[in-house]
Write a structure and sequence with these properties.
The chain has about 300 residues and is of the alpha+beta class. Helices cover about 55% and strands about 20% of the residues. Strands 1, 4, 5, 6, 7, 8, 9, 10, 11 and 12 form a ten-stranded antiparallel sheet that branches. It has a two-stranded antiparallel sheet with strand order 2-3.
Length: about 300
């Protein structure tokens, strides 16, 4: 704002200078016109004197000679004055052109400065709007987080009950990756980038194209294949020996409860069901109901 004010003051001064130079040019042009008029009249008189026939009267001859001498002197002075005035006019016009060029550059600079200022103001306005929106929706988000936590607790309880009813006979082999994609969130505590809320990720999140096949990470039996609040469409597979895998945010489920599944068999497709905005597979491995880092068992 301060810079714009300074540019405005400078622009005003240059315009005043251009106005003064324009007035000076007009005044000089008026003088040039007057001088040219007198010069032209002098030329006419000069040639009129030259055109007078020679006379035998000595007085007339002297008078003619004096008139011619005076007119020559007059015309020489007028010509010198005209040249001087023309030089001054050219100088003023040159200064005016320089000032106009300077004004043009200043106007362009002022335009750029206004554009930058307007952009900054727009960004500030957008930021204020965003902050107000965030503030207004903070209560809703906190409520949603609380509901998701309750949903997660219900899922944890379900997994514990399922694991409790099993017989543990030993270890299972390696688990394979459930889908091709990029891991965008790892196991453990993560912090929400907008609200700074700490969230516990019981598995990993794999970003993949919508509809990408999701396969069983290990042999087992489907113990849950339906929707679950916050997780969208999920499949839970029991691999015995206390191990379970969970696949969430599926676009479609392609298995049924109690169905036996082989490792690598398609059980669904990557999607955006639940609370994700981009196609993502949430994958968990649990042992005795407790979540463990999938990256320690995947090959």
């Amino acid at each position: 704002k301060k810079k714009l004010s300074q540019l405005e003051k400078k622009k005003k001064k240059i315009r005043e200078k251009i106005e003064l130079l324009s007035r000076g040019s007009l005044a000089i042009q008026k003088s040039i016109d007057e001088k040219e008029n007198r010069f032209n009249k002098g030329i006419l008189l000069f040639y009129r004197e030259l055109s007078i026939p020679p006379s035998t009267d000595i007085t007339q001859c002297r008078l003619k000679e004096e008139n011619i001498f005076y007119l020559k002197h007059f015309l020489k002075g007028e010509k010198s004055a005209l040249d001087s005035l023309s030089g001054k006019k050219d100088s003023l016009l040159s200064s005016k052109n320089i000032a106009q060029d300077e004004l043009k550059k200043l106007l362009a600079l002022q335009k750029e400065e206004k554009a930058v200022r307007n952009k900054i103001l727009a960004q500030k306005k957008a930021k204020r709007k965003l902050l107000n929106t965030v503030k207004d929706k903070k209560g809703e988000v906190e409520k949603l987080i609380a509901e998701l936590k309750r949903s997660r607790e219900e899922l944890d309880e379900f997994m514990r009950r399922t694991a409790k009813d099993e017989k543990k006979e030993g270890k299972v082999g390696k688990f394979i990756w459930p889908s091709r994609g990029t891991v965008v969130s790892n196991f453990g505590t993560v912090i929400d980038p907008v609200y700074g809320t700490k969230l516990l990720n019981n598995g990993i999140d794999i970003r993949a194209k919508e509809g990408t096949g999701v396969v069983a990470s290990h042999d087992g039996k489907v113990v849950y294949a339906s929707r679950f609040y916050g997780y969208g469409n999920i499949v839970i597979i029991d691999h015995e020996n206390g191990y379970h895998t969970l696949y969430a945010h599926l676009s479609t489920i392609e298995v049924m409860n109690r169905e036996k599944i082989k490792q690598g068999e398609i059980i669904g497709r990557v999607g955006t069901s639940g609370t994700v905005s981009e196609s993502t597979l949430h994958f968990e491995i649990r042992r005795d109901g407790r979540a463990i880092d999938p990256l320690t068992l995947l090959e």
